[in-house]
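Risk register update: the risk that structure generation would not scale has been downgraded. Supporting records follow, first protein first.
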Amino acid sequence: MNYDLLIATLEFLGTFAFAISGIRHAAAKQFDWFGAFICGIAVAIGGGTIRDVLLGVTPFWMTAPIYILCTILAQAFVIIFGRYMKRLDNAWFVFDTIGLALFTIAGMQKTLDMGHPFWVAIIMGTITGSAGGVIRDVLLNNVPVIFQKEIYAMASIAGGAFYWLMLDMNVDMTFSAVTSFLLIMAIRFLAVKYHIALPQLKV
């Protein structure tokens, strides 16, 4: 799989996953359809937009309408299957984690393709994966997950570092992306299940 196809695939899937997460959160706050769409699109494109602005390129969603259409598709999915998703209390968490993992890798690869060093790529990957969630939580008047005790951005950083290490060892790019995706997912799931968190700062 070439770079352009990998990035496009990751960004599309990440957009869909994050949009569902944002729309589900908005539904829990009893937003109307338009409000839910705004929340969904904000979380879906927020992190990637910040990344692209910092990298000095046209934001990814402005190059093709597919990402807007993807959010519309996500909203239709939630409307149609919402009653089934409601039974899954942690459905939003799963989609949020999928989006975090996919966008982290997409952000890293795009940054590496532009010739930036690995440490910049890890930062950009983390921004791509987590900034949309911050925007979503601000819109919903919640404390952003990234500022809570949950392992969130640290999972993105760890997965990004692992992805770069795999590439540096000349491991196949697709295999590196898949294994890094699974690592980020595993860190998030295990951290929540076993209540693993970074120490609180006490002064």
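Supporting record for the second protein:
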Amino acid sequence: MSEIAPACRNPDCEVAKTGKCALGHELLDSCEEYGAEEVDFDLGDDDVSADLDGLDDLDRMAEPTRLRSSDLLKPEQLWPLQKAVPTRTIALVGDFRAGKTTLISALYASFRKGPVAGYKFRSSRTLTAFARRHHDALLRSNREAPVTLRTSRQEGLGFFHLCLRDAVGADHNLLIADRSGETYADARSDTSLIGKLTELASADRVCFLLDSARLVDIEERHHYKRAFKQQIYAFLDNGALSPSTALEMVTTKLDKLTPQIEGRALIDELTEFEAATLAEFSHVSLTARQVCALPRADYAVGIVGLDEMLQGWLAPRAREYPRLTAAQGPVRQLDRIFECWSEV
């Protein structure tokens, strides 16, 4: 027994010799101390009812509790949630350091303080992932300035989950896709990679993040403007976006726009580019909004636009269904059966 039994974290337990738990657990797997280092917690998405069939009440009570990892949801883990409740999926598209992770962390931080835009936090399957992203923006991280670590290319595609409750008691499940900015940049220059961005086809809303810091940089703003529009064109021209998908241009880092450059306020540079972009993509009903999720250049700007952004994400949308028309002069005899019935 001592050769094959896993170790117990309780030094007073002799389960390796006697096979009996010092805490009185009949099933060793139900003890939190037994084999603690080797436990592989299930995500909790499996149907465990079949595993419990045939057990008496005492055995059912002794069954170990299944815990979720609370980390990012992978694409293959979405189906159990989507088949259980209606979901709204948001895809954030932006280059490296455009502010995707900061935006997600700011939403999490806002709900830690209370309701946001009339919605209360109810639950989340990705609390650990939220906490990891938000940690470096906290004082306890011992950083000199608040930051949020960027999403790595190696992490692939993941989804954050929020279940929010509105004022009338209805629940709204929000999924936010998270992918590295380098991957989107690669797909912009090599359109053969766009087909691998599966989050775009399933998204109810795609938000193109416009980085204010790069927009107002004299050395790279002209290149960045072209690259930003090229990203939208690349997705539209290669069929990556559904016609029913809402498209949104989200300008981040508004605290970078307070100084002046070339004799005018930087906000004017942003306003002019936003207007030109909306006009250029008027055929796809592109909308625009501005946010500041983590002010660092100018703390007086504060948190801006998160309430309005969340309301836009969860606002009900009118769905368009194809209009069915009767066939004129049907050729198949099967289609004419209704004419025969009407003559009887």
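DSSP finds 13 helices and nine strands in the chain. On this basis the risk owner (M.S.) recommends closing the item.
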